[in-house]
Structures are given as C-alpha cells and as structure tokens.
Amino acid sequence: MFRFFVAIFLLFVNFTFANLLQEAIDKAKAGSILKLPKGVYKGRIKIDKPLTIIGKEEGVIIDGLGVGTVVSITSPYVTLKNLTIQNSGSRHENLDSGIKIENSKQSEISNCIIRDSLFGIDMSTTNNSIISNNYITSKDLSLGLRGDGLRIWYSNDNIIKKNKLVKSRDMVVWYSHGNQIVENYGENNRYSLHFMYAGKNYVHNNTYKFNSVGIFFMYSKDTIATGNVIKSSLGATGMGIGLKDVSNFTLKDNTVIYNAIGVYIDRSPFEPDTNNWIENNKVLYNSEALHFHSLSENNIIKGNSIIGNIEDIVNDSRGAKTYENEIVGNYWDNYEGFDKNADNIGDTPHKVYQYADQLWVYNTDVKFFYGSPVISLLNFLAKLAPFSEPVFLMEDLKPKLKL
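^ Nitrous oxide reductase family maturation protein NosD, sequence as received from the core. Prediction below:
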C-alpha cells in the first residue's frame, strides 16, 4: 500500500512539474531567468516573451508526451540551455518538433539534447541567433519517415555551430542567407546538409559520414564551403558534394573520400558570366571523382588532389561540355607524363577520354558490369586499337607531378 501511494505521489509530481513550469513562464517578467532543478517536466510549453531557461544540472527533461511540438518559441531574446527535450508528436503536416522557434531574433539554443522528436529544431523567420552544441536525433523510424534534425527556413545571419545530428533525415537551409554553419557533425542521415535558394552562407569544418548525401547545394549562389570532410556516403548513388544550378560558389580545402560520387556538377554555374571555384580539395578513393551532368561549363577546377578514384571524370550527358571548364594545376595519380625540367608540372597535358568502358554512363543496364574484367578488357582494346572515336572530356594543361 505504501508503494502504491508513493507511485501515485511521484506521478502527481511529474505531471504538476509541467503545469508549474508553464505557470512560471506565464508569471515571469520579460527578461527573467528560470533555473530548473533535475526532474521530468511533462507536457508542452510555450514561450512568448524574452526569457532564459537553464537546466541547473544534468537530467532536466521536458517531455512532450508524444503530442505536438514540445517547446514553442514565438519571441525574440529567448535562451534555452542544458535541457533534454523529448517525445514530440509524429505529425509531419504539423512539423511536430522538439523545439519550434519562429519570428525571433538574438535567441540561443545551446547544450541541449533533443531526442525522440520527429523534427529536431524547426527554425523559421529567425535571425541573428545561435544554435550550438546540441545533440539531435529523430524518432526510431525509417529514413524517409523521419523529420529534419535542423530545419532553417527564411532565417538569416545565424550561427549554427558544433551540433551533432544522428539518425535524423536532413539538415535543410532554405531561403536563408548569411548563415555560418561550422564544426557540425552528421551521421546516418539522408542529406547531412541541403541548401535551396540560399545565398552568402559560410560552410566550414563540418564532418559528415555514413549519410546518403554529404552537402548538396541547389538554386543558390555566393557561398563558400571550406575545410569540410565528407566520408562514406552510402549506396550506389551516395554523393559527397553536389552543385545544381549554383553560381559564384567556392569549394576549397574540402576532403571528399569513399563516396560513390565525389563532386557532382549539374548545370553549374547557372547564371551567365559567373564561375564556380573548386580548388585545393582532396577527392580520394571515390567511384567517380568529378561527375558532370547537363551543360556545366566555366568552373575553375584548380590545385585539387585526385587520387585513387575508379573514374576521374564522368560526363553522363553529351551536352555537358566538360572541356569548357578551366581545369589546371591538379594532381592526378594516373597521369602518365614526365617532368624533365623538375618544375613539378607535367611536360604534356593530362587528357581524359571516354572509352568503351564508360558505356554504362549512358546505359544503366551496362552498369551491372561496371568494374568487371569484361569492361576492363573492352577499355584496354579500345585504347590499343580503337574501333570508335573516344570522346574527349577534358585536359589539364599543367598537371602536378607531386603533392
């Protein structure tokens, strides 16, 4: 009997915590700081005034009880720190989230754990804010049914730093400009980072591995991506970095390793009289190092190390005009020339042709035999005694001999 009353008392305490927390929020003056002791605060909360909520110690849990969004913020100058936020609803059409922040500015969400929530942080029309050092994971669903770990929507000039997204769906940056996305980590997601209609963002020193796609930029411009590591994108179409219809981009000092496609370029640069700069990257041990699709010219591809890939250049559409890109000063591990004057520049250009072994590029049925001895033999014979004119893809006029 005593245990029964203790259980009832604890249940009552846990349920009243949420009421007490919302009551405290409602009664607090704008600008107040609420420091929460360890405990489970059950139920959803809403913050509609400048306010700071801090967990005084580990184990401060706000539990949404599986309904809707756990924490809703509709005010500027809100700070959440050192909290565990869990158990949102499961409705995609409502964007049920651990934290939803909208119409805000100069807010901060840091050092929080967001788990068992369909969407992690849903951030819209929120500017000049900080999202840092959070651990975010979705509900235990198949990849396509999870929500986005971090969704940045019409939000500008924010700092997104040192967050860890694991087993979520995507991190998306759509219609959002001037954001700094630095030192984040993504694992076992779909798109670790996906941009659309976004400009002047800075993407630096992030690490993404075991995702379907590392970083994909679409319909965007004026962005710098530097120092990122994209590793082991999953599946036959797993991609490191993708550029689609983007202009005035800089990809520099990134490492792209163990992917099906290293760097994918589709109709980029998109705007007339613009360039993209792909410089000093390490593109290593991918099935395809650089994959061109559709008309893609005026990229400047310079100083990259292209090593250990099965194919260095793939052009899957005959109108891509791969040769109209400025490709110069790269290191190619399969360059077959000499350097008689020892200036570390090959005496002859490094030329890449498409031979019979790339029939699979235009016929997916042939791809079944990709890498097989039969295709390798076809390639050898095509080079030894061509039975058709090989397709010229590109040349590097000044290939490096040493790294």
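The domain at 1-189 is CATH 2.160.20.10 (Pectate Lyase C-like).
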